[in-house]
Amino acid sequence: MNKDLTVGKPETVIWRFCLPLFGSIIFQQLYNIADSLVAGKFIGENALAAVGNSYEITLIFIAFAFGCNMGCSVVVSQLFGAKEPGRLKTAVTTACIFSGAVCLVLMLAGILGCELLLYLMRTPGEVFADSKLYLDIYIWGLPFVFFYNIATGIFSALGDSKTPFYFLAVSSVSNIAVDILFVKAFHMGVAGVAWATFLCQGISCILAVFTVWLRLKKIPCQDKGALFDWGLLKRIVTIAVPSILQQSFISVGNILIQSVINGFGPSVMAGYSAAVKLNNLVITSFTTIGNGISNYSAQNLGAGKYERIREGFLAGIKMVWCLCIPFCALYLFSGKYLLLLFMEKDSGAALMTGRQFLWILSPFYFVVSTKLVADGILRGISAMGQFMAATFTDLILRVVLAFLLSDLTKSAVGIWCAWPVGWTIAMGISFGFYRNKINQYSKLITRS
Questions:
Q1: 40 close to 342: Cβ distance less than 8 angstroms
Q2: Contacts of the segment 283-286: beta carbons below 8 A, 24+ positions apart
Q3: Can you give the pLDDT at residue 365?
Q4: Higher pLDDT, 32 or 13
Q5: CA-based Rg of the chain, rounded to a whole angstrom?
Q6: What confidence tens digit (pLDDT) does each residue in 162-189 have?
Q7: DSSP letter string, 116-141
Q8: Exposure of 125 by Cβ count < 10 A (0-12 exposed, 13-18 middle, 19+ buried)?
Q9: Is 3 helix (H, G, I), strand (E, B) or coil?
Q10: Which own/partner contact pairs does 442-448 have at CB distance under 8 Å and 24+ positions apart?
Q11: What pLDDT is stored for residue 343 in this prediction?
Q12: What is the mean pLDDT of residues 270-298?
């Protein structure tokens, strides 16, 4: 059901819209968590390390899909808020054509370049073959990743956060079952984990795209509109490219950090692989709520309702901080038991690595969540220069400090300490940019 986010009490609107998005990302993360859990529990520590190692490369592909999602979603949100259905539909088809072209280029790059990336990451010999096998299968499923992201972006732009939740709930639970079936019953190893993800993502993509097509047909429109529009493409690219660069640079940074981690051996790799999945569950949840706030901000910007953007920021902070409390407590006091879910046995080095990672990062969830809500506002109002500046500051600091502190401490603990420093400084920058933009809108309201 389409929903206008420009009416109603902002806090109520934000909570009703973003809660299903949060539920959706929990199920989305089950894809990756299930892969690592099944690999570590039913295949072994090296398989867990291989899946975790491959995951850092898959994030580059996901970064491009996410950027296309945001470009389409923000522009469609603005057109929906401005009540321009004809241009809205043209924006959707333009985004699909653009995303399809990007996907084809990435598939070619992945087929030709993933093996080289694994070498550059200093992937140990005992996990190299499984890492490459996982990636080879994953790359052929990229069209499903891209068009599913476009579909969910359109749902969010139309104010519908529940439909993607239903799709993800079913497909994620199915993925866990198929993972176990392929690995335990068919003895397919890491290949079984990859094929399970491929099949479940494919089914959810087809259903989501078909549902979007039906939804768009129901929107009344006097002017059918063009199939492709260069002007709308420029608007989409203006949002998509910075979002792609943001996520891609984060992924490249993670690959550089992974190369440092790989130097400490498979046990540390396995511990990090398990812990980073738990961490990503939280960070991706905050990011998704930030994306929802982007849609909210974009619709209200299109409608010229600037004061509601400020109120949306405050509601977003309340929401993410409510999530920080249980996640932080869970990881600080029960992290060991969560990590053991990924491990066939209590591997001392791997378990301690994961626990140290969670102990150091989880108290700073309050900081990074504030940054991501501010980033959501900046992206929704198309302040992409400021958005990128804050993101790159975080990334550069984390990568540089990971190298320096790991060398200084001669342990992986130095790497984990890089995260809180980057988050804290970047949060200050994001919040400053947000305040500056909101003050500009306040002056516009005063003049009118």
A1: yes
A2: 283/368, 283/372, 284/25, 284/28, 284/29, 285/22, 285/25, 285/26, 285/29, 285/323, 286/320, 286/323, 286/365, 286/368, 286/369, 286/372, 286/373
A3: 95
A4: 13
A5: 21
A6: 887 787 777 777 877 887 888 887 888 8
A7: HHHHHTT--HHHHHHHHHHHHHHHHT
A8: exposed
A9: coil
A10: 442/306, 442/307, 442/310, 444/306, 445/306, 445/307
A11: 73
A12: 84
Residues 430, 282: Cα–Cα separation, whole Å? 19
Tokens of 397: 């600091």
| The pLDDT of residue 1 | 55
Cα 352 from Cα 383, distance rounded (Å): 41
Structural element, H or E, at residue 324: helix 307-340
Q: Count Cβ atoms within 10 A of the Cβ of residue 258 and give its class: 0-12 exposed, 13-18 middle, 19 or more buried.
A: buried
| pLDDT, tens only, 33-79 | 677 767 767 777 677 777 777 877 887 888 888 888 888 888 888 88
Helix (H, G, I), strand (E, B) or coil at 411: coil
Helix or strand holding residue 153 (H, E): helix 142-157
Q: For residue 347, report the phi and psi dihedrals to the nearest 5 degrees.
A: -85, 110
The Cα 305–Cα 300 span in angstroms is: 5
How far apart, in Å, are the Cα atoms of 233 and each of 88, 92, 226, 237? Answer: 12, 10, 12, 6
Give the contacts of 235 (CB within 8 A, at least 6 positions apart).
Answer: 75, 91
- Residues 6 or more apart from 63 whose CB is under 8 A from it? 244, 246, 247, 248, 250, 251
With pLDDT > 90 as the criterion, what percentage of the chain qualifies?
16
What count of Cα atoms within 13 Å lies in the side-chain half-sphere of residue 300? 29
Question: What's the CA gap between 288 and 283, in Å, rounded?
Answer: 9
% helix / strand / coil in the chain, to the nearest 5?
85, 0, 15
